[in-house]
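lol ok so funny story. i was supposed to be doing the assay writeup but got distracted and ended up predicting the structure for this chain instead. priorities right. anyway since i did it might as well share w the group, maybe its usefull for someone
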Amino acid sequence: MSKIPCEMIQDLMPSYVDGLTNEVTDKFIAEHVEECEKCRKTLEMMRAGGDKEFTPDEDEKQEIDFLKKNKKRNLTIFLASIGAALLIVALVIFVRLYVVGQKIYGDWVLCDAKVEGNYLEIKGTPVEDVHAISKVDIIEKDGVITITTTAVLSGPVYRGGFNEQYTAQNEITRVIVNDRIIWDSGKDISQLASSVYETRHEYIGDMSANGSTAQVLNIQSDFGDYTNELKTDSEPYGWKLVLSEDISEEDRTLKENDMESYAYIMIAVIDNLDNVTYDYTVNGVSKTKTVDKAMATEFFGQDIKDCGKSVRLLDELIDKTGLQ
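and the output, tada:
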């Protein structure tokens, strides 16, 4: 009998039947099947196109039964593994969304702070009902209380907001929740004032920083598209906004008042900015309006540059302009 194993012969049979094997291989297969009844039956069945019924002997039946049982067991293990993996993933997602959560921005939480000397009582409620506060961390440094909150999805573990009392070592001068100043020097601070205060910077020549201030003030929503021109070669330093959209005569007074209001705030938070100029059209007629720091100081009643150094004063300025 040929020394070639049956398994190798059977692997070659499909190519042999299709006439794809060479003469040497054909010879070995022919010699093997002549002496091996099992392979001969397999070859006959393949040549018949699978139409002949193949009746396995006892050994083959046992092997087939073993393979079937093993296949069923492997399938059960595979399905169980998939189920366990899905369960673990679902558990991880549940823990992350409903237990662990993530740090959130200040404007995600509505807060009410009461400060008396070194004592703080603060309540916070998520802006959206789908969230709940799961953790509150309080850090004190030089009279500044910084509160960091973690939010999760409202559900079986956590619901609603928080109510915290804290006694500081020193007199409290400022309260910050996440990234927002909510109380400073005896006064509640608006979200707009806190956000604008965070954009304060030294040089009008920093257009990226200027853009942050304009974005927080949301100037584009009021005036539409505009382009910027900076005067930084010599003092007085200026920022010109060239408005693209025409203003109607009916809206002129309101828009020009807003121009002044935005200019006061921009001059306050940009240290070396001396004036803000607007180029615009009213019913197609070109107009120019300039607001300088002297006008801003007169409007506010004290040095306008003091506002850039105090979020409390900046909040008073914004409140006075009516932009809140």
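The mean pLDDT is 89. Residues 183 and 294 are 29 Å apart (CA to CA).
back to the writeup now i swear
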